[in-house]
Write a structure and sequence with these properties.
Layout: H1 2-11, E1 16-17, E2 39-41, H2 46-59, E3 63-66, E4 82-85, E5 92-96, E6 101-105, H3 110-118, E7 122-123, H4 136-142, H5 149-152, E8 159-165, E9 171-174, H6 187-191, E10 200-207, E11 209-210, E12 214-222, H7 225-239, E13 243-250, H8 251-260, E14 274-282, H9 285-288, H10 297-312, E15 315-320, H11 324-334, H12 337-341, E16 352-353, H13 359-373, E17 378-384, E18 389-395, H14 401-417, H15 433-439, H16 442-455
Parallel strand pairs: 2-4, 3-4
Antiparallel strand pairs: 1-2, 5-6, 6-10, 7-11, 8-9, 8-10, 12-14, 12-15, 13-14, 13-17, 16-18, 17-18
Helix pairs in contact: 1-2, 7-10, 13-14
């Protein structure tokens, strides 16, 4: 085909993969979606991405950008067309400690940036379970969240500037290093979270933070979710908003973890309904100064707050990590979420966000609604409770698409009634197109379609993702 010859001439035949050579890209991380691309192309520079997009535009060939392929919503799925892999664009061009920024290419793996930042006494704050394979471009394209959003924000909040190749091959330089820039529309934020439907992010200016001097990490058994949220407020007040992670695991989640890992001792002697993992980080040297007894001023304030709630009965039991090994052990239970939630079928996955004070009401309201649909259903929930993001996983008692859809609609309705969102951090991709059609403001959808048509009139950028088709009238 002429397009394959043109691509080979532009970036080298060895970087235009077809047939069996595409196997690595033909399935997503969970095996939910399969791709059958015309070719996988692997440009090594922004200039090569530009040439690829110019050729695709000329041939009206669809292009699906793919980074680490760790997404959960099917955004990096292609049927025909080109899959544009960023895996050769892995340069950390520069780390500037004085400005606390890193200038990176889109194929940089998150943990590689984290390791490089650490050599400068800095931290890349984005913490997600797939950090060993997820890439900067994918994190930006989905506006990834993770465990540290409570303190540092989602990926959008960690980005100062981006470089984007548009569908026609033009390169848009938005590589600002500024914290303030009021020069018209914020085009950067338009592309972050767009899941490759408007262009290809090829580079970014990423904010770094000072590496914490010390952590205080604990697993808590709480009397209720209301008590847990009260604890969060008190900890934030006592520590000056130093809480980095505030994670919630249900009893069902913990039971499933130990069923998969029977060799690991339970944190608590008896099963607990509300399990909360907290991590508070001392950034200042004064707060993180380690005394002769191994404590820090910050850890003393945290433990005093925990003790007060223990005496009040809000905390039922508590285990505080005293070593880095103990800290990692506590985190290992939370970081097994993908293994725990996605190992059972049939499966209804939700990724919702609620106002913090509405979280307890959601659990109270959704349980009877789901039970009315399927009395024998099971559920496992885990949450970034500090920012209201709940992964509420449902397991119907039978493999019935209509039942799964009804469960999804019930969750959406309760979330909407409580002022929440049906999508928090995993993106829309293919899996949430029906939800977008049902729940997104119709005027907002019209505006999104207008933006898409203006930037990508031939609809070659990741077509069929994020924006549902306009209903026939």
């Amino acid at each position: 085909m002429q397009i394959l010859d043109d691509l080979a001439a532009a970036i080298g035949a060895a970087n235009v993969l077809t047939d069996d050579a595409c196997a690595k890209w033909q399935t997503d991380w969970l095996g939910t979606y399969r791709s059958t691309p015309l070719a996988v192309v692997r440009p090594a520079s922004t200039a090569e991405v530009s040439r690829v997009m110019e050729i695709a535009s000329r041939h009206a060939c669809p292009v699906t950008p793919v980074a680490g392929n760790t997404g959960l919503a099917g955004a990096a799925t292609a049927t025909g067309g080109i899959m544009l892999s960023l895996d050769r664009m892995r340069a950390i061009r520069e780390v500037r400690p004085a400005a606390r920024i890193a200038i990176v290419e889109a194929g940089v793996i998150l943990d590689d940036l984290r390791d490089e930042a650490a050599t400068h006494g800095l931290m890349f704050p984005l913490k997600i379970a797939s950090g060993g394979s997820a890439m900067i471009g994918g994190a930006l394209s989905t506006n990834a969240g993770g465990s540290n959003v409570l303190r540092y924000g989602s990926t959008r909040a960690l980005c100062l500037g981006i470089e984007v190749v548009l569908p026609d091959g033009r390169v848009m330089d938005l590589m600002s290093e500024l914290h303030k820039d009021n020069t018209g529309y914020d085009l950067r934020d338009l592309f972050i979270g767009a899941e490759g439907t408007l262009g290809v992010i090829t580079a970014a200016v990423i904010k770094l933070a000072k590496a914490p001097a010390a952590y205080t990490t604990a697993m808590l058994a709480m009397r209720s979710l209301d008590d847990a949220l009260n604890l969060l407020r008190r900890l934030q007040d006592e520590t000056g908003n130093a809480v980095e992670a505030f994670e919630y695991m249900t009893a069902d989640y913990v039971a499933r973890y130990h069923a998969l890992h029977p060799d690991r001792a339970p944190v608590f002697g008896a099963a607990q309904a509300v399990n909360i993992l907290i991590e508070v980080a001392a950034v200042s040297d004064a707060d993180g100064a380690i005394g002769d007894d191994g404590t820090t001023p910050l850890s003393e304030r945290v433990e005093a707050t925990l003790m007060a709630l223990l005496e009040e009965g809000a905390i039922v039991d508590a285990v505080v990590a005293r070593t880095e090994a103990q800290r990692r052990t506590l985190w290992s239970q939370r970081e097994a979420a993908a293994e725990i939630a996605h190992g059972l079928t049939p499966f209804v996955d939700t990724d919702i966000c609620l106002p913090l004070d509405a979280v307890p009401a959601f659990f109270d309201r959704i349980a009877p609604r789901i039970a009315a649909l399927d009395a024998a259903y099971k559920t496992i929930s885990v949450a970034h409770l500090g920012d209201g993001n709940i992964h509420y996983s449902l397991y119907p008692s039978r493999d019935d698409a209509s039942l799964s859809d009804a469960m999804t609609v019930a969750v959406e309705e309760e979330v909407q009634a409580l002022g929440g969102s049906f999508s928090a951090e995993h993106g829309i991709g293919l899996s949430k197109l029906k939800s977008m059609q049902r729940r997104k403001d119709p005027v907002a959808l019209d505006v999104m379609r207008s933006i898409k048509a203006a930037l990508d009139p031939a609809n070659i950028m990741n077509p069929g993702k994020v924006i549902p088709h306009e209903p026939t009238r």
